[in-house]
Amino acid sequence: MDGKVALEEHFAIDDTIEDSKVFLPGDVWTELRARLMDIQERRLREMDATGIEVSILSLNAPAVQAIPDPARADEIARRANDYLADQIAKQPGRFRGFAALPLQDPERAAAEHRRCIDDLGFVGALVNGFSQIEVAESAVYYDDPSYNDFWAEVAACGMPFYLHPRNPLRSWGQIYDGHKWLLGPTWAFGQETAVHALRLIACGLFDRHPDLQIVLGHLGEGIPYSLWRIDNRNAWTKSPHPYPAKRQVAEYFRENFYLTTSGNFHTPTMMQAITEIGVDRVLYSTDWPFENMDHAAEWFDTAEIDEDTRRKIGRDNAWQLFKL
Ligand code: GRE
Ligand code: ZN
To answer: Nearest 5°: CA angle at 163, between 16 and 203?
Structure first.
């Protein structure tokens, strides 16, 4: 299918490139490094070859979220965002941008968000999970009340917020001890991000901002498969553990979330996502350069779905959501 839009597509700058090395070291690193640092050459050729008209680009992970010093996090976020804006200006018809945000300081993050949308023309933000703040051994999630004003700013600007994975801190990841293979995209990314998304739902964020839209990759980080159980566990007890939000988790999930196909090129999983959240809330993505654009396209372009559905997921939903 031609004219696709893809929105979990990463690049790196010198200050952040090393963050990606732990995931694919050794021989593959040379290749991954080159893929991450390139924007105008191979990336564009791959987009042409796989029918992607527009890529919405975002910084690699965890990058800014893993810089405990708030001033330094702000500096790197601004540097990455300025670099991205320059790159987009070379191919404005093919590239758009998501802001990297220094959430170590909610006020700075809100200001950078505003700058990226208003001055740089970005179409939203992509944040790599929790932020480490002041000390490396910290993990702050964005349901914390200190982010109330930040979220008000994001909601007011009307552009989506992509909650992208990162690994748990090593000191908090005992469950993975001796099973390093489960870290990253195999399992830990999804678990970490799904819990963060559920925290946002439960804290009442979407009661305060009913129009706020969150994007999750990887066809929903496992949530669609668990959605019914999240709301219906121990249904015989009249009041299981309460949370501040007013409604059931599934209601927010269906009104405040979009899911992308990044790194999850499997039709039954996509059908499950469509069944739970609706065809208007699923968006094509690849997760380049960690996944291949040709693997994504060969799957998606021939998946057994009707052409209306392919068009919506491949292009129209994103076109509308990001006001392209
Ligand atoms: C990603 O950011 O999407 C990613 C990584 C590392 C490994 C795989 C992956 O940062 O998808
Ligand atoms: Zn990704």
So the answer is: 130
